Amino acid sequence: xxxxxxxxxxxxxxxxxxxxxxxxxxxxxxxxxxxxxxxxxxxxxxxxxxxxxxxxxxxxxxxxxxxxxxxxxxxxxxxxxxxxxxxxxxxxxxxxxxxxxxxxxxxxxxxxxxxx
Amino acid sequence: xxxxxxxxxxxxxxxxxxxxxxxxxxxxxxxxxxxxxxxxxxxxxxxxxxxxxxxxxxxxxxxxxxxxxxxxxxxxxxxxxxxxxxxxxxxxxxxxxxxxxxxxxxxxxxx
Lengths: 116, 111
Description:
Chain A is mainly beta. Chain A has no helices and eleven strands. Chain A has strands spanning 4-7, 10-13, 19-25, 32-38, 44-51, 57-58, 67-73, 76-81, 90-97, 106-107, 111-115.
C-alpha cells in the first residue's frame, strides 16, 4: 500500500522558535498533500491543502503566515510553524493522494509538537 | 457546516465480544462515508467505506451500512480480537471536498 512518512515524530521547542515538519510519500507521487491538526479528544481539523508546485490553500481561520507550507516536489511537503507559542502545541498529521489513488488519502503517523 | 459525531470512548471489551461504534453525520450534499483506524504509532488507515445509501462497507470482519434515513454509519464487528485495539475515526466527504472527521473512539480489547 501507499506509505506516507513524517519527520520528526515528536519535537519540543522553545517559544519564539520555528519548527519544520516534513511529510514524504515513499512509494507514490503525491499530487496533493493535506495538513491536519488534532487536539486531544478532538477531530482532525484540515489546516491546508497543497498541490505540487502551487501555493497552498488554507482553511478559514488558519494563519498562512504562521503555518508555512511548501510542496516543492511530488514526494515532499513541509509545514513550518513560525514563531511557535505554547498554544501551537498539538498533533500535526499529513496525508497525500496521487493520480493513481483516485480520491483516497494516505496518512502519515503524525508529529507531536510541544512548545515550552 | 458538515459534521460527524461518534461515540466517546474508550470502549472496553473482552476478546470475542460484539462491537458497535456509533457514528452519525450531517452534510449539505450527498456524502461518501468512511471508517479509518489508527494503530499505536501509525497513520490513519482506511478501514472501509460506502458511497451511497444502503451500501455496506466491509473489511477485516468489520462492517458498516450507510443509512440515509437515520444519517448513520455505525461500525460493527461480531467478534473482536486484542489486535483490534486502536482508535477508530468516522469521516464523511462530499465529492472532492475535504474529509470531515469525528473525534475518534478508542477501542481497548482485553484477552
